[in-house]
């Protein structure tokens, strides 16, 4: 199959700029990066179908290899619509994040940071305990004498 | 066997109910179940003793067995087999189990919490042990093994409020399940080599297995690790003293008589076949005797009665495992007797400690004094048991130990004398700590002790101890029944039939050794008493427990370190790591192996591609550097529209159409969603970060490289060459891509529309954020000119104010209602031209969308494109007439559209099932209509209508959320104050 250099170059630029934007901390720019990546990958899938051909609308007289490959097209069609759904979702997320934090950034997860700063000391495991010599103790640990039978 | 097993587990299930009714006396009822099992077992014993244990299950005169298919594919069956070893241990399990449950009825109080659950776990434990010792399938045995570990964990942790109980339970669980998992590895190795998981078959094949050498050696060693951890041998021994945090009946049953015997059982079971493997003797005899000495020594240092017994148990378990580990028939004979003796005396001793603790409130030998006089019956019973433990004559412990010495004297290994010496020394320590226990508990102290008020135990509380100590005494004097069991077990391994247990076997070497150990033991005890200051002894070496705590601590620290380094909470960091892997992994492969390279290059399929390419590339680059947010968005759109042109030129009209529509709606969505974000958020973002840029470029190059290699790798003709014909003759459509979506690859599309539904729901939930969608507002309910009184009017200059006033007067005077809700919008927001154009175009566009939907099967179009066109029609209405106009133009909620669409699509798939066809079968009908002419209806169109509805619902949801709802949230606020007031309004519940 023939390899289209122009497509490869366009794909490369779309992907490079897309990756660059995705690595940023500003949500809006991340979203733009995802859209560029989407376009780049769609083009990549399209090029994997080979050279251009007739529109994939069936004509009885046309041999099968004269059509533009319909398989990548079906995949891309799905991808375009999904990218739209993802874009809408991320837009809503950006708006939500803006109303909550007055910012448009991916904040670090404070819980994760807490974990990384914690120590191995665990009260359940490591606190010193007194040895009991009876199991007949009340809630404060004072011995109780059995008075029944 | 299965009856006992199921009866025990069934009783466990009934326990909570029983205890609610009968309170603690329910223990008496529960105890009947193992007692019945015990009696049943006694009736079975003659048959077991008459059988030939070397025979395979099922042969005539083989031990009783049951076999039920369970997982035949894995060769695992519910096989059970009752030979002498199983029966002997089972006697202990059921007999002691029944007595301990009987004892519990007076040990606990009626108002103790959760005694029902406690009893259930005890009975279930008896069931699990029964399964463990009778299972003839190693996997089934392993399952019961692990059940006992879990039940032990639950029982040790019975006093949930106490940190010692919780911690000890966790330690025990970690150690025993660690051992269990190691053992599982060994079992699987052994089973794989033997080609069977049936225990009796593995043992029958042990000869060949041992000849395999290293693999069997390792497998057996792994299994021994499991046994050592379960029976608390060094270096795993420390969990057992910790487990004394359990209620004393649990200690008596699980940690003296039953569970810890599981390891003993396993060693006894494997010894006849695998004692020849290379690690067997060091791991059983060596570790066993070391454990005996260490346990005995540690027992001498304790002040808590229970801990003296716990370390004593550790010591004795080491002893028993060492004897079984010797592997000779005489050793098996002696060890089985010792196992029984140990079960009887150790259970008695634990139960007596329970009574002491129960009636005096302490187990500390420094506080106890004079119990001999206060509790004479208890003193006698415990005295018999302690004497049996010490190996004093006339008791079962003595008889068994004589047999042990006898068998050890006949060892012909070079290390035999050393082992014998260790045993005698261990027995001396046993003698010493037995004395420490007895006099510590019952004696009068030489130092001053506060007098203890205590009442003697009732007879019924004492009954279990009396039964056990009587047995110790009776079997000591008349050991014949024990001998019968031991002899039968040893004969199966080729033992001589002339071995005997005797209360007095004459003056022989074994008796001499006993005398030595008793004498040395008395000496040890005398030294210990002299040096005993009542203070805990200083520890001389790091104990195994400290090592365990340290290793857990190190594990914790390592976990925190690794978590802190990998889980930093920064998404950019994660992404960087992921992308770096994407970069480095293929790079390594590309360098390591030769990749195919295409020979057939073209610059472009069409000259226009180069021009479009230049535009797209410009769009990309500018989008990175754009100084304003909207400009960046626009540039990304440029690349999208560029894609439209590429698709069109490449022969993909469907893609071009869909991309065009999507690109337009995305642009509108962007503007709607981001209008609230101030300009300042974009400041400083356009500075190029070179590190990121380098990574991004490298990644892009890598992906393109992979793509090139991929395209050069094609060897087969693409499957899509069959698609044109399939589409037309099977799918009844000319548009191959559309037929692929609604017919050939319909499941993909079905999956996709559910994703769209999820995304639409996500958008709505993020924007509405739990405030509810509210009631639909009709146009006539709203005052004209009241909606979206724009932010321009706020803080406007005088000049602007005049402008607005004129615009308003002009707008109000025009009462032409081009749109349903056009006049609800504030005047400066209206555009008559836009309203008129919308009025003219809306229905035309809608009809076009329906046409695109229906014709899509044969010409470019279909549900996706049709739905998007309809969505655009809605978008125009919203932009021209505001949020009231949007709700007027589509009165069905987006949720209904999406749900209905998915339902319709699903239905179109299910319907063919009723006609007896496969799911998603497509049919076609040809018919003639006046005006429209000849037509063909294809059922996959129904699916496409579903897609249409879902896409329309998605667009409507986006407009409603990013459009209407954000309008509502920001109405009447100037752009500057918008943010703060939105936040304030969002904290309230209603709107």
Q: What's the total helix number of chain B? A: 37
How much helicity do the residues of chain A have? 55-70%
Please write the string of helix (H) and strand (E) elements of chain A: EHHHHH
**Oligomeric state, counting identical vs distinct chains:** heterodimer
- As residue ranges, the low-confidence spans of chain A are none
Write structural notes for this entry:
The complex is a heterodimer of chains A (149) and B (991). Chain A is mainly alpha-helical and 149 residues long. Chain A has a single domain (5-112), classed as Helix Hairpins (Orthogonal Bundle), CATH 1.10.287. Chain A contains 5 helices and 1 strand; from the N terminus they run βααααα. Chain A starts with a strand and ends in a 23-residue tail after the last helix. In chain B, helix 15 (329-360) packs antiparallel against helix 17, helix 19 (416-442) packs across helix 22 (509-531) and helix 29 (723-730) packs across helix 30 (736-744). With 991 residues, chain B is mainly alpha-helical. Residues 975-991 of chain B have low confidence and may be disordered. A two-stranded antiparallel sheet of chain B has the order 1-2. Chain B starts with a helix and ends with a helix. The longest helix of chain B has 32 residues, at 163-194. Chains A and B meet through strand 1, helix 1, helix 2, helix 3 and helix 4 of A and helix 6, helix 15, helix 23, helix 24 and strand 3 of B. Strand 1 (3-4) of chain A pairs parallel with strand 3 (601-602) of chain B. Chain A: Its main location: membrane. Chain A: This is Multicomponent Na+:H+ antiporter subunit C. Chain A: Belongs to the CPA3 antiporters (TC 2.A.63) subunit C family.
């Amino acid at each position: 199959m023939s390899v289209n250099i122009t497509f490869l170059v366009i794909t490369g630029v779309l992907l490079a700029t897309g990756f660059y934007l995705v690595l940023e901390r500003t949500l809006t720019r991340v979203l733009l990066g995802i859209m560029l990546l989407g376009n780049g990958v769609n083009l990549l899938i399209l090029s994997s179908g080979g050279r251009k051909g007739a529109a994939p609308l069936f004509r009885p007289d046309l041999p099968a290899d004269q059509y533009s490959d319909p398989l990548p097209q079906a995949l891309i069609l799905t991808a375009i619509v999904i990218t739209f759904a993802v874009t809408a979702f991320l837009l809503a997320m950006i708006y939500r994040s803006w109303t909550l934090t007055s910012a448009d950034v991916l904040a670090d997860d404070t819980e994760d940071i807490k974990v990384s700063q914690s120590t191995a000391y665990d009260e359940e495991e490591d606190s010193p305990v007194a040895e009991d010599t009876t199991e007949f103790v009340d809630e404060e640990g004072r011995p109780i004498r059995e008075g029944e039978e | 066997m299965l009856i006992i097993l199921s009866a025990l587990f069934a009783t466990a299930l009934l326990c909570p109910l029983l205890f609610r009714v009968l309170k603690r006396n329910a223990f008496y009822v529960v105890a009947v179940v193992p007692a019945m099992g015990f009696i049943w077992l006694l009736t079975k014993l003659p048959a077991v003793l008459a059988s030939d244990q070397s025979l395979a299950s099922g042969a005539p005169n083989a031990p009783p067995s049951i076999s039920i298919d369970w997982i035949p594919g894995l060769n695992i069956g519910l096989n059970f087999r009752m030979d002498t070893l199983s029966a002997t241990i089972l006697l202990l399990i059921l007999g002691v189990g029944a007595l301990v449950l009987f004892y519990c009825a007076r040990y606990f109080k009626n108002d103790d919490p959760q005694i029902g659950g406690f009893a259930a776990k005890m009975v279930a434990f008896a069931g699990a042990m029964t399964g463990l010792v009778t299972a003839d399938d190693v996997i089934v045995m392993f399952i019961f093994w692990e059940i006992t570990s879990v039940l032990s964990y639950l029982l040790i942790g019975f006093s949930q409020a106490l940190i010692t109980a919780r911690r000890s339970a966790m330690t025990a669980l970690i150690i025993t399940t660690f051992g269990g998992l190691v053992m599982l590895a060994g079992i699987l190795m052994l089973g794989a080599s033997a080609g069977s998981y049936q225990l009796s078959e593995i043992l029958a094949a042990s000869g060949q297995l041992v000849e395999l050498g290293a693999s069997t050696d390792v497998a057996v060693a792994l299994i021994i690790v499991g046994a050592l951890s379960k029976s608390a041998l060094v270096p795993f021994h420390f969990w057992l003293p910790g487990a004394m945090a359990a209620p004393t009946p649990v200690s008596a049953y699980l940690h003296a008589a039953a569970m810890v015997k599981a390891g003993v059982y396993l060693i006894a079971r494997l010894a006849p076949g695998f004692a020849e493997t290379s690690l067997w003797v060091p791991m059983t005899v060596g570790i066993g005797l070391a454990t005996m000495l260490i346990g005995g020594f540690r027992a001498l240092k304790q002040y808590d009665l229970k801990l003296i017994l716990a370390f004593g148990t550790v010591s004795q378990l080491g002893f028993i495992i060492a004897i079984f580990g010797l592997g000779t028939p005489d050793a098996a004979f002696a060890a089985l007797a010792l196992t029984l003796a140990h079960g009887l005396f150790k259970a008695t001793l634990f139960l007596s400690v329970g009574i002491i603790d129960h009636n005096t409130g302490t187990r500390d030998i420094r506080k106890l004094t004079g119990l001999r006089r206060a509790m004479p019956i208890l003193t006698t019973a415990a005295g018999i048991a302690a004497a049996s433990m010490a190996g004093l004559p006339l008791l079962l412990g003595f008889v068994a130990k004589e047999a042990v010495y006898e068998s050890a004297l006949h060892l012909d290994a070079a290390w035999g004398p050393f082992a014998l010496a260790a045993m005698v020394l261990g027995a001396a320590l046993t003698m010493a700590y037995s004395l420490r226990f007895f006099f510590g508990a019952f004696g009068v102290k030489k130092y001053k002790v506060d007098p203890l008020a205590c009442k003697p135990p009732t007879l019924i509380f004492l009954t279990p101890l009396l039964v056990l100590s009587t047995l110790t005494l009776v079997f000591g004097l008349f050991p014949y029944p024990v001998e019968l069991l031991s002899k039968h077990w040893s004969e199966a391994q080729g033992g001589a039939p002339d071995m005997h247990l005797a209360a007095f076997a004459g003056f022989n070497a074994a008796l001499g050794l006993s005398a030595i150990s008793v004498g040395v033991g008395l000496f040890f005890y005398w030294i210990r008493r002299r040096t005993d200051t009542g203070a805990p002894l200083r520890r001389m070496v790091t104990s195994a427990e400290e090592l365990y705590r340290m290793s857990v601590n190190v594990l914790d620290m390592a976990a925190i370190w690794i978590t802190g380094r990998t889980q930093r909470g920064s998404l950019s960091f994660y992404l960087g790591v992921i992308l770096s892997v994407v970069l480095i992994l293929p790079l390594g492969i590309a360098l390591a192996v030769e990749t195919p390279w295409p020979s057939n290059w073209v610059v472009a399929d069409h000259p226009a591609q180069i021009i479009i390419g230049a535009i797209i590339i410009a769009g990309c680059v500018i989008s990175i550097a754009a100084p304003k947010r909207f400009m960046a968005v626009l540039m990304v759109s440029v690349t999208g529209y560029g894609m439209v042109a590429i698709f069109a030129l490449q022969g993909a009209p469907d893609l071009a159409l869909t991309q065009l529509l999507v690109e337009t709606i995305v642009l509108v969505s962007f503007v709607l969603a981001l209008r609230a974000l101030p300009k300042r958020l974009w400041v400083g973002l356009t500075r190029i970060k070179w590190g990121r840029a380098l990574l991004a470029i490298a990644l892009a190059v890598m992906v393109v490289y992979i793509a090139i290699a991929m395209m050069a790798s094609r060897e087969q003709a693409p499957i899509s060459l069959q698609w044109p014909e399939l589409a037309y003759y099977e799918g009844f459509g000319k548009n191959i891509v559309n037929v692929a979506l609604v017919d050939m690859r319909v499941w993909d599309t079905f999956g996709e529309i559910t994703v769209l539904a999820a995304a639409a729901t996500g958008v709505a939930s993020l924007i509405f954020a739990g405030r509810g969608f509210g009631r639909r507002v009709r146009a006539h309910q709203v005052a004209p000119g009241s909606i979206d009184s724009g932010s321009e009017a706020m803080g406007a200059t005088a000049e602007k104010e005049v402008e607005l006033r004129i615009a308003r007067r002009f707008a109000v005077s025009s009462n032409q209602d081009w749109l349903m809700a056009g006049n609800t919008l504030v005047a400066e927001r209206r555009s008559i031209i836009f309203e008129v154009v919308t009025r003219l175009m809306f229905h035309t566009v809608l009809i076009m969308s329906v046409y695109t939907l229906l014709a899509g099967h044969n010409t470019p179009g279909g549900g996706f494109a049709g739905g998007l066109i309809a969505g655009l029609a809605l978008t125009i209405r919203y932009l021209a007439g505001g949020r009231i106009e949007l709700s007027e133009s589509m009165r069905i909620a987006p949720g209904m559209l999406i749900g209905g669409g998915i339902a319709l699509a699903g239905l179109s798939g299910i319907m063919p099932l009723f006609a007896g066809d496969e799911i998603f079968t497509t049919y076609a009908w040809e018919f003639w209509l006046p005006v429209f002419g000849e037509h063909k209806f294809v059922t996959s169109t129904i699916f496409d209508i579903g897609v249409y509805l879902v896409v329309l619902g998605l667009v409507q949801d986006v407009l409603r959320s990013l459009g209407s709802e954000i309008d509502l949230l920001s109405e009447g606020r100037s752009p500057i104050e918008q943010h703060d007031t939105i936040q304030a309004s969002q904290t309230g519940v209603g709107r």
